[in-house]
Amino acid sequence: METEYELIDPENPDKKVLKKAAALLRQGEVVAFPTETVYGLGANALDGDGVKKIFLAKGRPGDNPLIVHVADIADLTPLVEEIPEKAYALMRKFWPGPLTIIFPKSDSVPKEVTAGLNTVAVRMPEHPVALALIKEAGVPIAAPSANISGRPSPTQGKHVLADLNGKVPLILDGGETKVGLESTVLDLTVNPPLILRPGGITLEEIIDTIGETGYDPGLKKDQTPRAPGMKYTHYSPEADVFIVEGSEDKIADKFMAAAKRLKEEGKKVAFLLSEETAHEIGEYREPCYIEVLGSRKNLSIVAHHLFSSLRHCDMHGADIILIEAFSDTGMGAAVMNRMRKAAGNQVIN
Ligand code: TXA
Ligand code: MG
Q1: In the Cβ-directed half-sphere of 222, how many Cα atoms lie within 13 Å?
Q2: How far apart are CA 151 and CA 308, in angstroms?
Q3: How far, in Å, CA of 138 to CA of 99, rounded?
Q4: What pLDDT does residue 111 have?
Q5: In the prediction, which pLDDT does 119 show?
Q6: Strand partners, 173
Q7: Candidate of 67, 123, 126, 147 to mutate for ligand 1, largest count of ligand atoms within 8 Å of Cβ
Q8: In the chain, which residue ranges form alpha helices assigned H by DSSP?
């Protein structure tokens, strides 16, 4: 299949390009598009056969359900059995934005979208291209991240092209995504509500809005998560990833000792570091590649860089990526969740 690649200005999305993308979606085709979190690979959420093409293009396991994207709260009503009070409070505060809510599903959502579950995940993305595309198509759009299953999620159009060229008819490139990692997935069908995947909206922000909320105990190592997707290997670059843990005064030495040892084994090593550790390490030249993720004091910036930095290490031919552990609170919960998955829980400490 020939893949068309269209640049689209997020400030002022070209109507002609939107119309072309919307027509493909209505014909049962898939289209990759930007959201504020990561790029999505969309299909008409009401068309089971169209949705199947998403699974095919990504090589996604069939038991992993998709998120349905809407452009208006009114679009939610036909998709769900009921909208709990807490959902209204959350939608008022965080939609459009990186919060996905799980509802009991209605009969109009095909089983291909929910992988046979009786619940459906819905969010309203905060991106002018995504919102305009949903409106132009006139249907809700089911979309997972637009990467080959298992790879880091795409935060730029060219990442989508690298993964899906020849597999999808159209990619809309609307520039770099703002958040850089995926939405928070919140299950409101249980009491208290549970975060099934940490993401762009923090636990603290959700508790502020609806009170008691927890993390799915299945997010911990060696337990079965409630979000089917969380059990799979994820976000993996070609290189082998290790998380480096340690106190602020020892961490730079740990990186340098590990790099020296790995270099002796003939491995090409890349470092992904906090600004603070990069400063300590200074002109150390052993690694084939060093990238700064951001300051320990600004985890939103770290989140913004994480996936693209993992891809950069691959481009520099790294065999091993050593990545610095950050604090686990606030946005750090999502950052560390993605990092642990990318590393398959391999830690140096
Ligand atoms: O930010 C995002 O959420 C991006 C953009 C494109 O919107 N999308 C995204 O989709 O990350 P995906 O498919 O990569 O991740 C969806 C996650 C998976 O872990 C899946 O198992 C879970 O949400 N999920 C979807 N529907 C569910 C349901 N009914 N019950 C439990 N988990 C569900
Ligand atoms: Mg994904």
Answers
A1: 0
A2: 11
A3: 22
A4: 98
A5: 98
A6: 7
A7: 67
A8: 15-26, 48-58, 85-94, 111-114, 128-137, 157-164, 203-210, 251-264, 275-281, 299-315, 332-342
Read off the pTM.
Answer: 0.96
How far apart are the CA of 145 and the centre of ligand 2, in A? 4
Structure tokens at 66: 């998709």
Q: Is 115 helix (H, G, I), strand (E, B) or coil?
A: coil
Q: Whose CA is nearest to atom 33 of ligand 1?
A: 227
What's at 110, amino acid-wise?
A: P
Q: Is 175 helix (H, G, I), strand (E, B) or coil?
A: coil
Cα separation, 116 vs 62, whole angstroms: 10
What is the best residue among 63, 182, 331 to mutate for testing ligand 1's pocket, by most ligand atoms within 8 Å of CB? 182
Alpha carbon 188 to its chain centroid, in Å, reads 20
In terms of Cα–Cα distance, which of 7, 61, 334 is closest to 203?
Answer: 334
Neighbours of 7 (CB within 10 A): 12
Quote the tokens at residue 263: 């270099």
**C-alpha closest to that of 59 among 142, 140, 151:** 151
114, 109, 122: which is closest to 83 by C-alpha?
Answer: 122
pLDDT tops 80 at residue 347: yes
Measuring from each residue's beta carbon to the nearest atom of ligand 1, which residues come in under 6 Å? 35, 37-38, 40, 64-67, 98, 100, 102, 114, 117, 119-121, 125, 143-145, 182-183, 185, 196-197, 226-230
Crossing angle of helices 128-137 and 15-26, rounded to 10°: 50
Does residue 104 carry a pLDDT above 90?
A: yes
Beta-bridge partner residues of 195: 186, 215
Write out the residues surrounding ion ligand 2, Cβ under 5 A: 145
Of 194-198, 236-240, 272-276, where does mean pLDDT reach its minimum?
A: 236-240
Determine which residue's CA is closest to atom 15 belonging to ligand 1. 144
| Number of residues in the chain | 349
Question: Which of the four pLDDT bands, split at 50, 70 and 90, describes residue 334?
Answer: very high
